[in-house]
Design a protein that fits this description.
Layout (H helix, E strand, L loop, with lengths): L4 E7 L6 H9 L8 E8 L5 H11 L3 E6 L6 H10 L4 E4 L5 E2 L3 H11 L4 E9 L12 E4 L15 E3 H7 L11 H12 L3 E13 L14 H18 L4 H16 L4 H5 L3 H18 L2 H5 L3 H11 L3 H11 L2 E13 L2 E12 L2 E2 L1 E3 L2 E6 L2 E4 L16 H14 L5 E8 L5 E4 L1 E9 L5 E12 L8 E11 L2 E6 L13 E4 L2 E7 L6 E5 L16 E4 L2 E6 L1 E2 L5 E9 L2 E12 L2 E7 L2 H4 L3 E8 L3 E12 L2 E6 L5 H30 L1
Parallel strand pairs: 1-2, 1-4, 2-3, 6-9, 22-27
Antiparallel strand pairs: 4-8, 5-9, 6-8, 7-9, 10-11, 11-12, 11-19, 13-14, 13-19, 14-15, 16-17, 16-20, 18-19, 20-21, 20-24, 22-23, 23-24, 25-26, 26-30, 28-29, 28-31, 29-30, 31-32, 32-33
Helix pairs in contact: 6-7, 7-8, 7-10
Length: about 650
């Protein structure tokens, strides 16, 4: 079979972190003879070369190329391209890993759409990844119709003939942003780019020791010298105008303005902050015309204007003000409606821990410690010069926040805790000005209701609920919570979409999370008593504290006694505030002994029921089984958590020992 995909992995002293990468590459659903893995060892000094050689000796999919250390990833990737035999080339970093079906899905999607570049959905474990790009699939994406420019890392699939036809290779040597140069040119010269968003293909992983190359502090002079090369690519392949300005805006926004904002900026040492500012000032003045900054959000426009004016002290003061701004999201209802979990919440921004307030639709600026209403006509779009002082900057942002409130958006994302895979949930929202006092103050509040379909949560696991809001000049996210302990919504677990879904509030922070197919012992069935169960002849009926959709769900009733098991077909249908379990018992097979019971869900998962059945000549008797001791359950949970913590500590110590 011709090789469909060549996976190129640059490797340099990864230690134990390469193991997850290797495992994910060998688990791929693509047939083994349809892909190859090329590890390019860039002069590793640990035991990695021997580890890879041993792997290649036993697995025909794996090849290893050894070379002297080149200092960065560009040359190893180019060596991998030269060695590749596949129709497509996929780049993976040694401390990351792929979804099990990533290569197959990306290859099929690329071929179906005639793509030169295939971008697979990403998840970040301790690392930021693009979000907006992966709202939906984009079979025919361009830099003009999709936010491709938000994703410039090399972890994509490229058609090998395309790279050869245009002569595209990575810049080599010890340098930064070689991937920006490569990927930007690929986007601009590709006949088609396809974005696959309905499956997480690539997992970016932050090491425990944060030693990933992207987390290391860089020399500003060298960094922005390399950044100029990416800007050169944009200017080489685009004409002056709105599209070029929009593309260049990505580097102004992400690599410059965002580095000088809020807590991120203030966390840096003072001398480094000033050096970074000076390099950014030089690039902004040298390379960006007014049309580039004009499309920024209000807060970003303020920072950009201060950069151009060379006002470092004001940038620092503005960062200190922004550091106090946060998003809060309060749950309002969490209810099941015919197999869909509807999650209602409100969200708004706070400043210094208090809701941001506006007077009569006008923002409140703070000058000399006193709030002052700002006239709406002071707003200017785009910003035509730097604000006079901090109070003027805050006033400007406030005015624009009110003016843009009609464009504010809210989203609910569910993020799987172990993998960091995340998905947008469909929702509806409204924008409200909520009175905040007798003096005419208002708060800008977004109220939303999301509809969560459990059938889409195919990974199982624990899913945390995050709210993401775009309002004014900020895009922020936070956990959905905390929920007040008194009167907080607490729906039953649901048996829907082939899953057992338990909505619950985390401890101690009481944020919303969904446990899918895991917490089978916590779904509340221990509250069932014999009074909730009736047996009339062969028909068993039991009222359970669960949710089931209106059309019902096919389940089973497992009966177990002395090593014998009967799985009896059953149905689960809504009844009042719970669900009714119904089954026809095989009476002839049950007589003479006591049978423990469990609910078999479509997963399949079995939920222990707190009653047993005793069948005799006179019929079936329902008896209560012993309930688990709460103290014993807490002790078991504490032992599990302690064992997990000790295991993680031991793994970190082993990793340090190997690196040492």
């Amino acid at each position: 079979m011709p090789v469909k995909v060549s996976v190129v992995v640059p490797v340099y002293n990864p230690g134990v972190y390469v193991e997850d990468c290797i495992a994910s590459l060998l688990r791929q659903s693509l047939p083994p003879d349809a892909y190859e893995v090329i590890f390019v060892d860039d002069g590793s000094t640990d035991d990695t070369p021997a580890r890879l050689d041993a792997l290649a000796a036993t697995d025909p999919r794996v090849r290893v190329v050894h070379q002297a250390n080149s200092g960065w990833s560009g040359k190893p990737r180019n060596v991998g391209i030269a060695a590749a035999r596949g129709e497509y080339v996929m780049f993976v970093d040694h401390d990351d890993h792929l979804g099990d079906e990533a290569l197959e899905r990306m290859y099929d999607y690329g071929v179906a759409n005639g793509a030169d570049v295939v971008v697979g959905k990403m998840a970040g474990k301790g690392r930021a990844v693009p979000v907006e790009l992966f709202r939906r699939n984009h079979p025919r994406a361009t830099v003009a119709n999709a936010p491709l420019i938000d994703s410039l890392t090399p972890h994509k699939m490229f058609r090998r003939a395309f790279l050869d036809d245009i002569g595209l290779r990575y810049p080599e040597g010890r340098r930064r942003l070689e991937d920006h140069v490569f990927v930007t040119e690929a986007y601009l010269r590709a006949s088609n780019v396809s974005v696959l968003s309905d499956y997480v293909c690539y997992y970016h992983v932050r090491r425990d020791d944060a030693s990933n190359a992207g987390f290391q502090r860089f020399d500003p002079g060298g960094y922005f010298k390399n950044l100029r090369e990416a800007l050169d690519v944009v200017e080489r392949y685009t004409e002056p105008g709105p599209l070029r300005d929009r593309l260049l805006r990505r580097w102004l926004r992400v690599e410059m303005v965002e580095r000088l904002r809020g807590r991120r900026f203030l966390a840096m040492p003072g001398d480094y902050r000033r050096e970074l500012f000076e390099e950014i000032h030089q690039v902004v003045v040298e390379r960006f015309g007014p049309g580039v900054a004009a499309g920024l959000q209000p807060t970003q426009q303020v920072v950009a204007a201060l950069i151009v004016a060379d006002r470092y002290d004001d940038v620092e003061a503005f960062a200190e003000w922004e550091a106090g701004i946060a998003l809060t999201a309060a749950p309002e209802h969490v209810v099941w409606e015919d197999g869909t979990l509807r999650v209602g919440f409100s969200a708004e921004y706070t400043a210094a821990g208090e809701p941001m307030t506006f007077v009569g639709g006008k923002p409140m600026a703070v000058a000399d410690g006193e709030p002052t209403a700002v006239a709406a006509d002071s707003a200017r779009t785009p910003l035509d010069g730097p604000p006079g002082d901090l109070a003027a900057a805050i006033a400007r942002v406030g005015v624009d926040t009110v003016a843009r409130f009609g464009k504010a958006t809210a989203d609910l994302l569910l993020r799987e805790r172990s993998s960091a895979a995340q998905y947008f949930q469909p929702l509806e929202f409204t924008r409200q000005e909520v009175p905040a006092g007798d003096d005419g103050r208002v708060r800008l509040v977004l109220r939303a209701t999301a509809a969560v379909d459990p059938a889409t949560l195919t990974l199982g696991g624990v899913w945390d609920a995050f709210v993401r809001v775009k309002l004014g000049g900020w895009t922020k996210e936070c956990r959905l919570g905390p929920a007040p302990r008194e009167g907080r919504p607490a729906p039953h677990a649901g048996v829907v979409g082939g899953h057992v879904v338990l909505p619950y509030w985390t401890a101690p922070h009481t944020n919303l999370a969904l446990d899918v197919d895991r917490a089978t012992h916590r779904v509340g069935l221990g509250a069932v008593t014999p009074d909730d169960v009736t047996a009339s002849g062969a028909r068993l009926r039991a009222l359970l504290p669960l949710h089931a959709p209106h059309h019902g769900t096919d389940v089973s009733l497992r009966l177990t006694s002395s090593g014998t098991t009967h799985d009896v077909p059953a149905t689960l249908s809504p009844q009042g505030s719970g669900a009714l379990l119904q089954a026809l018992l095989p009476l002839a097979d049950l007589r003479g002994t006591t049978w423990r019971t469990a609910l078999g869900t479509p997963g399949p998962r079995f939920l222990t029921l707190p009653f047993a059945l005793r069948a005799g000549v006179g019929g079936v008797q329902v008896v209560q089984t012993s309930r688990p001791d709460p103290l014993r359950r807490l002790l078991r949970r504490a032992r599990r958590r302690l064992g997990t913590a000790l295991g993680r500590t031991a793994a970190r110590l082993r990793a340090r020992a190997r690196r040492g």
